[in-house]
Amino acid sequence: MKLTSRSFSRAALASAFLATTLGVSLVLASSADGAASTLGAAAAQSGRYFGTAVAAGKLGDSTYVNILNREFNMVTAENEMKWDATEPNPGQFNYSSGDRILNHAVSNGKRVRGHALLWYQQEPGWAQRMEGAGLRQAMMNHVTQVATHYRGKIYAWDVVNEAFADGNSGGRRDSNLQRTGNDWIEAAFRAARAADPGAKLCYNDYNTDGINAKSTGIYNMVRDFKARGVPIDCVGIQSHLTNNAPSDYQANLQRFADLGVDVQITELDISGANQANAYAAVTRACLAVARCTGITVWGIRDTDSWRTGQNPLLFDGSGNKKAAYNSVLAALNAATPTTPTTPTTPTTPTTPTTPTTPTTPNPGGCTASVSLNSWNGGFVATVKVTAGGTPLTGWRVTTPLPGGAAVTSSWSAGNSGTTGNVSWSNVSYNGNVPAGQSTEFGFQGTGSAEGLTATCSAS
Ligand code: G3I
How far, in Å, CA of 108 to CA of 106, rounded? Predict the structure, then answer.
């Protein structure tokens, strides 16, 4: 989707006004022809994100941070939210590095993917030495504690990472986690949902890029989870690739999406001579699948990559844009806008979901609709903001909360007030909404919000 010159000048005016008002300088992420000039802005044109893995130890490197701040609107901690980092001793939690990454992301208007609550690698030594019921108890405590610490702040969690075996079995990988019982994955998803009802919950794995035995094993698990009401919202396709994506890459994304989950490309890196073409093909595949909600590359510069010497990323060691960068940006800018349709209701059977309230027409150029997930004493509201016939460069939404209801946390919008007539406004990355397209924000609260409505106006 390209912005028209009219909408571009509206965006420029709005940004200039904001810059003057806030006393900050803003870099416009659009070129004179209206095409977005950064990965994050280009992906946002179709309601998607473009993210990167970030290492806390590099946040003092100005070249690294400049690229991070300029190009990406989603962040994954490369190692800092893993079990060995967050619970180095049993029951003793350390969030310092994870929080550093989260705070950097949030204070720069970016969202965060949480990675990863349970993984057979990077278990702390004490957990590696455990088995059976004791380990199961420690696993569930870990999921609950970490998801609670980050409650309301994480867009999507990789609840379980890499639990399936490579090769042709299509079955689970052996690990001490798996040996606690085959239901460990669903137990982890239920614990994560209870701890942070607002986060999308993902299963994440590698060598699942095409339709093969491993991805089919995962597909069957997701289908079973959906049938039985186990709360799962998304599948992460890591996409550590060499030369090419498999020819059925898009078909594989689509078959997962057809199960009723989002798909996300979570750790993309591609080595080899065909790199630029392969990056464009992966980008186009995501854009072609309505429920592919975003792409994350696994590092910024080639020198930041875990694949030492393979140069699989979008920036060279000096921070220069590579051909692969240009091909991804062009693919994002060439996209026909297809806003991803994201699920807004968790699948836990114990949390009944009220039907989505009808869209409220608004002459100010946008509409808003609420989807509510309630339980006794609390709720999560997801609000969809849809632009009318002209693009939005900013929006405001009002949600009149019933007496006794109060907002406790929110994501992807700023709020004034927590009770009564709460008003919401866009954050930096979701104010620009093309005509007819949508963006979402959400909030969690205590009390009952039954019957909640939302009214939108352009700002
Ligand atoms: O922090 C220590 C440092 O104190 C020590 O001096 C040094 C010595 O080797 O090790 C440092 O830890 C390393 C850590 O990265 C931080 O750099 C670990 O040894 C190293 O094993 C770890 O590698 C990470 C790897 O996961 C662990 O398996 C990579 O950075 C990270 O990119 C990689 O990411 C994984 C995803 O989480 C899941 N999917 C596959 C992907 C690639 O392996």
Answer: 5
Q: Are 294 and 51 in contact (CB under 8 A)?
A: yes
Cα 79 to ligand 1 centroid, rounded to whole Å: 6
Q: Catalytic site residues? A: 162, 267
> What three-state secondary structure class fits 62?
helix
What are the residue ranges of helices labelled H in 259-414? 275-288, 323-333
Question: How far is it, in rounded angstroms, from Cα 52 to Cα 56?
Answer: 13
* Whether pTM exceeds 0.90: no
CA–centroid distance, 259 to ligand 1, in Å, is 33
Q: How far is the CA of 165 from the centre of ligand 1 (A)?
A: 21
List pLDDT tens digits, range 54-90: 999 999 999 999 999 999 999 999 999 999 999 999 9
C-alpha to C-alpha distance for 35 and 393, rounded to whole angstroms:
16
Distance of alpha carbon 329 from alpha carbon 72, whole angstroms = 12
Whose CA is closest to atom 22 on ligand 1?
79
User: What's the CA gap between 438 and 44, in Å, rounded?
Assistant: 10
Displacement of CA 174 from its chain's centroid (Å):
28
Residue of 28 and 158 predicted with greater confidence: 158
Indicate the residue type of 58: K
Q: Give residue ranges with CB within 6 A of ligand 1.
A: 78-79, 121-122, 161, 206, 238, 267, 306
Q: CA–CA separation, 249 vs 211, rounded Å?
A: 7
Q: Are 256 and 266 in contact (CB under 8 A)?
A: no
- The rounded distance, in Å, linking the Cα atoms of 2 and 22 is 27
Q: How far is CA 278 from CA 46, 165, 189, 212, 313, in A?
A: 21, 26, 33, 19, 12
